[in-house]
Write a sequence for this structure.
C-alpha cells in the first residue's frame, strides 16, 4: 500500500470519529495530529521529475481543517500578504464545502494552486497560527498552504474552473510587460473591467519564473499552463518572443500604439555572481541558466529536448535560498553522485522554505554550512576541477541582534567538484530602465513606485520583483493587484471627466 | 508572422532566408541579432545575426550554416513555412561613426552579419575596405554585395581557389603597415579569426571591434550563459554586446566555453562561429608559429 493510501485510510477513520463528536472544543482540536503531506519516497523521486508532494486527499484535508481553532482575531490573515480569509476557507473545507473554500480564496488570491505550493507559509500565515503557538511548535500549526493547494487542485482537476466575468468592452488598451505572477495578476484584474489587455513576454513561453525557474518536481508546468489558458480564455492577448526595450520601446507603446497604461512586471532576472576567480570557467553556471535549461527548455528530457545540460558528477551549489535548493535538487535528478550546498551562514538563516530544505536533505544534498567559496579551480582546458572554500564562524551580534558570519583566517581548504552552480540571488533586469530614462530606479536597479505602484513616468506602473528585488510569488501577485486597482480607477475617472 | 518569404542556398552548407517579422525589421539596427527556435516545445534557442532587413516587406534576412541539429532543421523548412519563434532584435547596435578609413574583415559566414556594418559605415561617409576570407571558393559568400557597397574588396581563400591564397590577417597586416592604415577595424568570423585579427592590429593600436557569438539561451541578460571576460570584467554578450573591443576579449576562455557541450553526451550545440573551426584552428597554429 502506498504511503498516501495509508495516510488516507488513517485520516478517514479519524474524520469519522471527529464528525461523530459534533462541535469540537479547542482542546479536542489541539489533539488532532497534523496531517502529513504525502510525498514520493526520496529514493524514487530522485529518478524522476514528477511532483514530490502529492497532495492531501479529501479526508486528510478535512481532518487538517478541523484542527483550525477558528480564532476570532484571525492572526493568520494578517500574516498573509493578500489577506485571504483563511479561517473561513478552512472552515468550508472542514464542512466539505470545497466550492465555497476556493471561492473565498479567490476573492483575494489569483493563483492558489501556485501559492499553495510555493509560498513561504512558515514566515507568513503559519508564523502567526494560534494552534502552532499553543503547541509551542510553529511548524505544527494548521498546514494552511496544503489546504489552499487542496482546494485549488480540486477545482482545477474538476475542469469546472469558471473564468472571472468580464464587464462590457471599454475600448481602452493596457499593456503588460512580463508574464510572471505580477503580470498575470495585473492582466486578470484589468481585463475584468472590460479593458483590452496585451501581455508581452520576452521568452517563448509565458509564466515568468513559474515557468523557467521553479522546477517541475515542485510546481508542475501543466498548472502554470492552465493559468495561462485561463488568461487567454478571458481574452487577454499574449505576445511571446517580444522584449520591450528592443522589439518595441515602452514609449512607443504609449505614444504610438494606443495603450493608455503600461504595467512593468519584468522580474529580477539578472543573475548575481560572486566575483571570485574562476567564475567564467567551463562548468560554472548561474542557477538561472541551469534551471532554465532544465525547466523551460526541458533538457531533463534527453530524448526529446534539443537543449543540452551539464550533467556534473560532483556539483557544488552556492547559496541558501529556494533557488539554491531547486538547483541542487535538479542536479540530483540529473544524475549527480554528490551535490554540496555551500552556504555562508547556518541553516537557521537560510531563506529557503523549510519544506525545500528538508526535501533537499532527504534527497542526499550535503549542506556545507558556515563556509564560502573563495576561488573556483580549473584545468588547462578551463574545466572546473574544484573549489577553494573558507570556513566562517558567527561573530558578535550586530545592532539588529543578528550574528553575522566572519571568515576564519587560514581555514581554507580545497574540494573536488566538476560543476558549480551560483545561486546567490538575482538583481533587477536593467533593460527597461536603460531604454526608458524617464523611469527612476534605485541604486540596485529596482524601479521606484508610489503607493499605487505608479513609476515616475505617468501611466506606467510596475510591480513584483522589478520593484521589490528578488521576493516571492505572493508579493508579486499583491503588487499586480494593487497596480491594477489604480489603473482601473484612473481609467474610470478619465471617463467621468469626459 | 515568422513566414519564410525566400530561401536560397548560398553554398553547400550555407543558406540565406528572408523571414517576415515586421517588428524586428522595423526596430533592428546594424550589429543586432535574433534568437530563433524551430520547435517551441523542445527546440533549442539559437542566436543568429540579422544580415539585412526590408522594412517595406517587413522582413529580415538571416544567413546560416548547417552545423547543428537546429540549423539543419531550419534549412529543411521551405518558403511559406513558419519559423516557430523569432525573438529580437537583441544586443546593442553597432556604433558607427565617421572616423575616416575602416577595414571590415569577414571570415566564412561572418561575412553575412558584416554586411550591414559595411553598409552603415559607407552611409556615414567612411572609406571601407572589406577583407573576405573562407576555406575555399565554394564557401565564400557575399562577395558581390560587398563589391557593390565597399570601396575596395580583398578576397582570400585558404586553398587559393579564389583571390589570394592565405589568411585574412595577411592583407589586414599589410593595410595596417601601409601609408593609409585603417582608423578602425571590424572583424566578424570564427573566434580564432577574430582573435588573430585583434592580435594583428594590437601593435598598431588600431581600435578593433569584434562581434561575439557565444552560447545563449534567453538573450535578455537573464541566464549569464553567454558571459565572457572583457578587460578582466565579466560581460554578457547578449545585452552588453555582441560587439566588444577585440583587444580586451579573453578569446581563449570564450572558445573553451563555446565548446562546453561539444563533448557531452547531448547533442552538438549550434553556433555559426564554430563552423569551419577545425580548419581555422589548424591555420591558427601556423599563424601562431609565424608570429613567434
Ligand atoms: C528558482 C526560483 C525559485 C523560487 N522559488 C520560490 C518559492 O518557492 N516561493 C516564492 O514565493 N517565490 C519563489 N521564487 C521567487 C518568485 O518566483 C518571484 O518572486 C516571482 O516570480 C516574481 O514575479 P514577477 O512577476 O515579478 O517576475 P517573474 O516571475 O520574474 O517574471 C518576469 C517575466 O518578465 C519577462 N520580461 C523581463 N523583461 C522583459 C521585457 N523587457 N519585455 C518582455 N518581457 C520581459 C521575463 O522573461 C519573465 O518571464 C523563486 C525564484 C526562483 C528564480
Ligand atoms: S543569453 Fe542568457 S544572459 Fe545572455
Amino acid at each position: 500500500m502506498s504511503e498516501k493510501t495509508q495516510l488516507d485510510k488513517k485520516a478517514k477513520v479519524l474524520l469519522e470519529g471527529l464528525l461523530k463528536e459534533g462541535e469540537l472544543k479547542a482542546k479536542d482540536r489541539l489533539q488532532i495530529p497534523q496531517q502529513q503531506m504525502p510525498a514520493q519516497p526520496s529514493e524514487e523521486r530522485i529518478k524522476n521529475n514528477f511532483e514530490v508532494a502529492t497532495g492531501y486527499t479529501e479526508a486528510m484535508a478535512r481532518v487538517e481543517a478541523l484542527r483550525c481553532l477558528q480564532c476570532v482575531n484571525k492572526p493568520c490573515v494578517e500574516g498573509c500578504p493578500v489577506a485571504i480569509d483563511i479561517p473561513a476557507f478552512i472552515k468550508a473545507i472542514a464542512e466539505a464545502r470545497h466550492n465555497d473554500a476556493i471561492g473565498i480564496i479567490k476573492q483575494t488570491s489569483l493563483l492558489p494552486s501556485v501559492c499553495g505550493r510555493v509560498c513561504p507559509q512558515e514566515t507568513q500565515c503559519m508564523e502567526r497560527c494560534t494552534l502552532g503557538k499553543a503547541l509551542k511548535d510553529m511548524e505544527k500549526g494548521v498546514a494552511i498552504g496544503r489546504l489552499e493547494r487542496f482546494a485549488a487542485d480540486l477545482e482545477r482537476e474538476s475542469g469546472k474552473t469558471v473564468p472571472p466575468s468580464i464587464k462590457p468592452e471599454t475600448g481602452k488598451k493596457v499593456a503588460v510587460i512580463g508574464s510572471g505572477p505580477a503580470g498575470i495578476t495585473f492582466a486578470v484584474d484589468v481585463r475584468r473591467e472590460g479593458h483590452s489587455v496585451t501581455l508581452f513576454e520576452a521568452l517563448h513561453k509565458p509564466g515568468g519564473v513559474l515557468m523557467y525557474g521553479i522546477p517541475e518536481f515542485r510546481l508542475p508546468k501543466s498548472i502554470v499552463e492552465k493559468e495561462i489558458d485561463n488568461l487567454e480564455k478571458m481574452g487577454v492577448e499574449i505576445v511571446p518572443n517580444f522584449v520591450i526595450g528592443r522589439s518595441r520601446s515602452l514609449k512607443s507603446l504609449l505614444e504610438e500604439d494606443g495603450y493608455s497604461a503600461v504595467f512593468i512586471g519584468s522580474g529580477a532576472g539578472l543573475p548575481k555572481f560572486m566575483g571570485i576567480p574562476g567564475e567564467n570557467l567551463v562548468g560554472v553556471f548561474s542557477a538561472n541558466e541551469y534551471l532554465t535549461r532544465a525547466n523551460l527548455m526541458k533538457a531533463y528530457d534527453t530524448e526529446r529536448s534539443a537543449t543540452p545540460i551539464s550533467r556534473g558528477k560532483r556539483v557544488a551549489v552556492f547559496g541558501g535560498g529556494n533557488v539554491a535548493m531547486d538547483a541542487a535538487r535538479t542536479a540530483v535528478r540529473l544524475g549527480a553522485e554528490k551535490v554540496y550546498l555551500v552556504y555562508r551562514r547556518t541553516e537557521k538563516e537560510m531563506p529557503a522554505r523549510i519544506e525545500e530544505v528538508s526535501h533537499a536533505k532527504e534527497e542526499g544534498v550535503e549542506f556545507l554550512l558556515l563556509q564560502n567559496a573563495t576561488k573556483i579551480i580549473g584545468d588547462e582546458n578551463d574545466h572546473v576541477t574544484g573549489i577553494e572554500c573558507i570556513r566562517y564562524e558567527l561573530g558578535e551580534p550586530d545592532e539588529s541582534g543578528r550574528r553575522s558570519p566572519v571568515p576564519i583566517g587560514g581555514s581554507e581548504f580545497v574540494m573536488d567538484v566538476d560543476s558549480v552552480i551560483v545561486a546567490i540571488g538575482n538583481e533587477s533586469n536593467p533593460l527597461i530602465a536603460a531604454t526608458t530614462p524617464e523611469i527612476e530606479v534605485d541604486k540596485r536597479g529596482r524601479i521606484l513606485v508610489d503607493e499605487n505602484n505608479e513609476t515616475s513616468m505617468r501611466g506606467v506602473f510596475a510591480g513584483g520583483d522589478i520593484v521589490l528585488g528578488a521576493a516571492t510569488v505572493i508579493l508579486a501577485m499583491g503588487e499586480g493587484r494593487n497596480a491594477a486597482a489604480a489603473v482601473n480607477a484612473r481609467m474610470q475617472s478619465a471617463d467621468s471627466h469626459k | 508572422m515568422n513566414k519564410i518569404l525566400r530561401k536560397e542556398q548560398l553554398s553547400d552548407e550555407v543558406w540565406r532566408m528572408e523571414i517576415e517579422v515586421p517588428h524586428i525589421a522595423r526596430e533592428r539596427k546594424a550589429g543586432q541579432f535574433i534568437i530563433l527556435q524551430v520547435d517551441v516545445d523542445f527546440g533549442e534557442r539559437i542566436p543568429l545575426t540579422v544580415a539585412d532587413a526590408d522594412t517595406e516587406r517587413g522582413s529580415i534576412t538571416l544567413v546560416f550554416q548547417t552545423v547543428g541539429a537546429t540549423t539543419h532543421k531550419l534549412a529543411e523548412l521551405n518558403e511559406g513555412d513558419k519559423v516557430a519563434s523569432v525573438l529580437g532584435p537583441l544586443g546593442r547596435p553597432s556604433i558607427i561613426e565617421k572616423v575616416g578609413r575602416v577595414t571590415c574583415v569577414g571570415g566564412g559566414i561572418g561575412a553575412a552579419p558584416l554586411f550591414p556594418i559595411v553598409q552603415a559605415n559607407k552611409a556615414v561617409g567612411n572609406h571601407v575596405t572589406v577583407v573576405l576570407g573562407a576555406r575555399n571558393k565554394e564557401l565564400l559568400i557575399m562577395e558581390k554585395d560587398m563589391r557593390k557597397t565597399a570601396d575596395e574588396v580583398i578576397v582570400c581563400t585558404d586553398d587559393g581557389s579564389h583571390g589570394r591564397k592565405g589568411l585574412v590577417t595577411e592583407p589586414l597586416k599589410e593595410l595596417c603597415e601601409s601609408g593609409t592604415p585603417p582608423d578602425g577595424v571590424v572583424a566578424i568570423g570564427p573566434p580564432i579569426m577574430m582573435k588573430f585579427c585583434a592580435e594583428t592590429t594590437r601593435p598598431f593600436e588600431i581600435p578593433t571591434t569584434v562581434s561575439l557569438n557565444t552560447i545563449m539561451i534567453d538573450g535578455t541578460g537573464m541566464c549569464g550563459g553567454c558571459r565572457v571576460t572583457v578587460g578582466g570584467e565579466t560581460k554578457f554578450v547578449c545585452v552588453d554586446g555582441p560587439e566588444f573591443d577585440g583587444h580586451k576579449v579573453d578569446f581563449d576562455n570564450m572558445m573553451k566555453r563555446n565548446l562546453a557541450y561539444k563533448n557531452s553526451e547531448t547533442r552538438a550545440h549550434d553556433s555559426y562561429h564554430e563552423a569551419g573551426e577545425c580548419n581555422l584552428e589548424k591555420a591558427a597554429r601556423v599563424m601562431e608559429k609565424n608570429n613567434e
Notes: The pocket of FE2/S2 (inorganic) cluster (ligand 2) is lined by residues B 216-219, 221-226, 236, 238 (CB under 6 Å). The radius of gyration of chain B is 18 Å.
